[in-house]
Structure formats: structure tokens, C-alpha cells
Design a protein that fits this description.
The protein is of the alpha/beta class and 440 residues long. It has helices spanning 39-42, 47-57, 73-76, 121-137, 152-164, 179-187, 199-212, 223-229, 231-239, 256-270, 290-296, 323-332, 342-353, 361-376, 397-405, 427-438, and strands at 5-9, 33-37, 95-97, 106-111, 144-148, 168-173, 191-195, 215-217, 247-251, 279-285, 336-340, 384-389. It has a domain at 95-115 and 225-405: Rossmann fold. Helix 10 (256-270) links the parallel strand 9 (247-251) and strand 10 (279-285).
Length: 440
């Protein structure tokens, strides 16, 4: 049985489009598209056969099937030829147990930031860039792949495009991303345009370039990205012996990631690999929380906001492209939306670090949301909870340094601040400091 997938309108308009067509929105209504798989073909294999296949491929040394994405090739982009796959072994990231976090019994963190470029964006970019490589090989005239970014998308695009031999164009809000994030696309040869605007302004510009200048759009409004990102849900279930947690908590900005997460769980449930759905919480920074505002008004229509500066810079987005997809996913998964202030996200990140994690600020937003859900009694001690960590804390060293030096204006009283004890070169001084420190 041949497996297949195609683009279709999320609003249900008639028409289907191949995955190698340059198209991002429905030509009838202008809504976003989504990738729809031939479920009848997928059901020709039993749930147990899929589990066996995915298990055989998991972390395999046979490229590219050991990738967390391409080990699920038939569920992602079945028409993509193996010789066009561009992979850095993305995915297969650790599911770390955090014992006793927030007084809860079973909290685990899915460490997506240990992927190649340091964020979950690799999972989607391997699919998108591989498809573009195949399109070019088949004769498509594409000058470059372009994205708007607050940091992580640009790093992933630059890496995969460089490996594919395709030019990458990155549009960033000037002065609003970390140095560690900025240097990645620069180092990998991308054309980096730093614009005097915010992410939403960059997004408007890159969409216009894609429409007029023959560049291929790499942001999450392109559903190819979400096909890779949905493998987080599949891999997570696999790591839990084909079960799902009671709760999954994920930070949200442009909202493609929660849409992808929902799609992954829907496939698992629809094809019989799991017997139930988890609940999902999207966590937003209070300075950029249009989804939370909609949720608080009973899933009202999106009202875009001017996002304020937040330590969680990658989700500083006031007009999320994937709003409709996210709401649909949250409704299907009994979803909720929580917010975190700057102090809450910073303290939650630091608290998790005391368990050895070294989390990024966006994971801090999700952890702060977990603490709030626990305080309300929505998450209880008998619940299994998975928090999606979207990036490496190493990309946000300035955030970490500022927290522990006490220089973050947004966090005037850091609860978990830790500073070095400066001492003279005398044994008695070192001994006394040791004893005092260990008695704390």
C-alpha cells in the first residue's frame, strides 16, 4: 500500500494540493492549510506493526531512520525520497524526570533543546528543507528559503539550508534576540536582515517576499514545519511505552507547536497506538498573551496585541499565525491557557535548574504555568505531567547571568539567586565558607 499526504484547507474548502506545491493558504478562503494523510492506507498496518517499526528505527545507526522525525517517515512526508532528506539526527531527545517539582508526583521535561541547533525548530525544518531540496531537484525555481524569526527558527533554517546547499534568508527584529541566537545564522552563512520592528513586523515582510520574490516561506504557517514538530507527541508516547501523560504543557507564541502536538496525538489515537488523549496547556508570557485573552473570553476571536518585551523573547508575538489551529487543538484536548509574569517565569526556570536542567526562559513560562495549575488543583499529585522544553538554556546565557547577578529589572527579587563566595587564599577562610554553605 502506498502512503500519501496532501495539503487541505483547515476550514474545509474543497481542493487538495501536493506537498511539493508552493502554497501556504487556501486559494478559496485564505485560511491556513494543513497536511492530511491517507488514513485508510495507514490503517493497513496494525497499531502493533507501527509500534514495532518505530521501535526498530528508534536511534538506529541507519541514516536517516534513526532521526526522531524520519523514523516516522510514513506519518510525516511519505512521498519524500530518502536521497533528498537533510537530517542532523534531530529528535530522540530525553524525557527527564524532575522528582518533587512543585510538590507533584510525576513531572517530566521533554528536552527538545538538545537537538542539533538547540531547539525544537529542527524537527520541522528537516521536513521543510528536505522537501525544498526535492522540489529543486525536480526543477522548481526557488531562489532561497526565508523566515521571520525571534531566534530559534533562524538557527534551524540556516543549519539545514547550509547542509542542503540552499541559500537561507533570515529576517530578525533588530536588538531583540540573544547574541547566542544571532550568531548561529551568521556563522552558517545565512543572509541576515535585522529590521527595526518586532516579530510581527518581520512576519509581514517575509510573507510579502515569499509572494513576490521567489523565495520559499519557512515559518510555521507553512504546514510542512508542523509535520516534523508533531513527532514530539509520537516520540513522547513511545518513551512512555505507548501511553500518554495526563497533561502536556507547552509554551506558545506563534502557536504552531501546540497545533503540531495536537496533530501528533490525534494520529496516535486515530490509528490505535494510544487509547486516550492528554489534556494540553499552552503557557504564554503575560507580556504577549493574545491566546490567553481569547481563552478567558470563552475562545473569542483573536484580537492581536502589541507584544511587550519579555525575557521569553521567542514567544514575544502579538498576532499568532496559527491561532485557529491552536484553538481547534485545545478544544479537542480539553485545553487551557495560562500566563506567567516575568518574575514567575524566571523563578520557575531557576527552580528547575536546581534539579539539574538549565532551562531556557520559555520552558520557564511552561513551568510557571504548571505551578499555577497545581496551585488551583487542576494538576494533582496523581497526574503524570510532561513539560515541553523548547530550547537549550545555553542559548540564553545572558538571561541566566542576569538572574544570578540580580541585574534583571523584571526580576527584582530572584528567589533562587546563587553567587560565588569570594575568599582569600587561606584554608581557614575556605573551610569556614564550606561549613557555612553546607549548613544552609
Amino acid at each position: 500500500m502506498a502512503f500519501s499526504a496532501e495539503f487541505r484547507c483547515i476550514a474545509g474548502c474543497p481542493g487538495a494540493y501536493p506537498l511539493d506545491q508552493v502554497i501556504y493558504r487556501c486559494p478559496r478562503c485564505g485560511d491556513l492549510l494543513e497536511v492530511v494523510h491517507d488514513s485508510a492506507a495507514l490503517r493497513t498496518r496494525s497499531a502493533e506493526q507501527w509500534k514495532q517499526l518505530f521501535g526498530d528505527r528508534y536511534k538506529s545507526v541507519d541514516e536517516p531512520w534513526g532521526s526522531g522525525v524520519w523514523g516516522k517517515h510514513e506519518w510525516v512526508a511519505p512521498a519524500l525520497r530518502a536521497d533528498n532528506i537533510v537530517s542532523f539526527g534531530e529528535g530522540t531527545t530525553h524525557l527527564t524526570r524532575v522528582t518533587g517539582y512543585a510538590g507533584l508526583g510525576d513531572v517530566r521535561v521533554k528536552q527538545c533543546g538538545t537537538s542539533h541547533s538547540g531547539s525544537f525548530k529542527d524537527l520541522g525544518m528537516t521536513v521543510l528543507v528536505s522537501m525544498v531540496k526535492q522540489m529543486v531537484a525536480d526543477g522548481a525555481k526557488l531562489r532561497a528559503i526565508a523566515c521571520a524569526s525571534t531566534g530559534d527558527t533562524s538557527a534551524a533554517l540556516a543549519a539545514y539550508a547550509a547542509a542542503a546547499g540552499i541559500r537561507a534568508v533570515v529576517i530578525l527584529p533588530r536588538g531583540k534576540i540573544s547574541t547566542a541566537q544571532l550568531v548561529q545564522p551568521l556563522a552558517m552563512g545565512a543572509l541576515v536582515l535585522a529590521i527595526d520592528t518586532d516579530f510581527d513586523g518581520c512576519m509581514r515582510l517575509v510573507q510579502e517576499l515569499a509572494a513576490k520574490e521567489g523565495v520559499y516561506l519557512a515559518n510555521s504557517m507553512n504546514s510542512l514545519r508542523l509535520e516534523g514538530q508533531k513527532t514530539v507527541a509520537i516520540e513522547l508516547a513511545q518513551q512512555l511505552h505507548w501511553d500518554v501523560p495526563d497533561w502536556v504543557i507547552i509554551p506558545g507564541g506563534n502557536l504552531g507547536n501546540v497545533s503540531a502536538l495536537g496533530a501528533g496525538f490525534e494520529m496516535l489515537h486515530g490509528l490505535g497506538l494510544v487509547s486516550r488523549r492528554p489534556r494540553i496547556c499552552v503557557a504564554q508570557a503575560a507580556h504577549a498573551a493574545p491566546l490567553h485573552a481569547s481563552y478567558a473570553r470563552g475562545w473569542a476571536e483573536l484580537e492581536p496585541v502589541k507584544a511587550k518585551t519579555t525575557l521569553a523573547s521567542a514567544i514575544q508575538i502579538g498576532n499568532p499565525v496559527s491561532f485557529k489551529k491552536a484553538v481547534r487543538a485545545l478544544r479537542a484536548f480539553e485545553g487551557v491557557v495560562e500566563v506567567a509574569t516575568e518574575a514567575e517565569l524566571a523563578d520557575a526556570s531557576a527552580r528547575a535548574d536546581r534539579h539539574g536542567l538549565f532551562t531556557d526562559p520559555h520552558t520557564g513560562v511552561a513551568l510557571a504555568a504548571l505551578e499555577k495549575l497545581a496551585a488551583k488543583g487542576e494538576v494533582t499529585r496523581d497526574h503524570r505531567v510532561v513539560v515541553i522544553s523548547t530550547a537549550s538554556g545555553l542559548k540564553f546565557a545572558d538571561f541566566k547571568v542576569g538572574y544570578h547577578e540580580g541585574t534583571l529589572a523584571e526580576v527584582p527579587a530572584a528567589k533562587y539567586r546563587n553567587v560565588p563566595v569570594e575568599l582569600p587564599e587561606r584554608y581557614d577562610a575556605v573551610r569556614d565558607a564550606l561549613l557555612r554553605g553546607l549548613d544552609r
